[in-house]
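Submission sheet (multi-component)
Chains listed below:
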Amino acid sequence: MAAEYISQAVVRRLPRYMRFLSELKEEGVERISSRELSDLMKVTASQIRQDLNHFGGFGQQGYGYNVSKLIEEIGRILGMDRPHNLIVIGAGNLGRALAGYGNFSKRGLFIRALFDVAPENTVTQVRNLNVYGMEALPAFLEENDIDIAVLTIPKDNVRQVAQQLYDLGIRGFWNFAHVDLALPEDAVVENVHLSESLMQLTYYMKN
Amino acid sequence: MAAEYISQAVVRRLPRYMRFLSELKEEGVERISSRELSDLMKVTASQIRQDLNHFGGFGQQGYGYNVSKLIEEIGRILGMDRPHNLIVIGAGNLGRALAGYGNFSKRGLFIRALFDVAPENTVTQVRNLNVYGMEALPAFLEENDIDIAVLTIPKDNVRQVAQQLYDLGIRGFWNFAHVDLALPEDAVVENVHLSESLMQLTYYMKN
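Outcome: structure written.
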């Protein structure tokens, strides 16, 4: 529906709205004007009106935006109107950090287990989540409705593991390995290349 | 110089060029055509020519790009023509994951120490790096030439800690806390809001 007409730039900004609006809701705020949201988010009020008008325009003159409704609507657009079940591949420091991150479950993103090539070298549980060997993957995915795999393994193995996960039915990949995946077109990949983010920082420090 | 005229979109793409070119160099490749780079990076050859012509155009008809020179030039633009020294604030799983990440030092980004409010609850060393208590910060920054702080602490404390680091002379902040910092204008902040990246993934899975 409306979602189809939203530009990539707006889609990139929506999660940030989500974060600020969720904090407002937690603080008990029920409505907010574009002006107040503008002060808070350090974005112009007209940018906010423009962004939020993309999908319905919940703002009413002299009333502002209904915070809960806006969260619900942005959540629907972002595909968060249903829960997602995740597994983490790699139970090293990064995998454990992500598994311990409380904010995901608040947003309906549930990490269900971790997998590692050498689970005996790592912990057996992370925040009540089991750490399994990679050989347990097929049976686990058979029995559990998992739609996203979080890849925190070294780049040498990640393409092969991603392909295996794809063959087992996973279509969502959140990739922290320092390499682009090569998967069929119906796979959705979001890359987090941390050193690229760090290079943005050094660029802006220089310029 | 030329760097001033580079658009934000190109700056966002440069680290990715850096990654592919560095891999080529490691494999012993000395020159590459925009066509070959295009196949590798899954970007059109004309996009590549356009991006790389922004700063000098090292490509020569029938010769291609000199890989080493291109790495050097992109590195210079990205502020990586000098080493950067980093400290990590927070020695939890995420801080330890970042401290153990070998790729940073390859690019002249050196993590020098970790700091934690409760170092006695964590490890005392991560990959030969010491973990200090927060009270050791002023003396450490006095004695070491640190320009970037990596913030992996909970959002409740992060603004206060960032301000303290700023007052001690730090101007570069790589922020993993789930909150925007409020620092004077000469501070450079690069945010990594992981749950926002995950929401991009769920969006593209839905649409």
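Remark: The longest helix of chain A spans residues 8-26.
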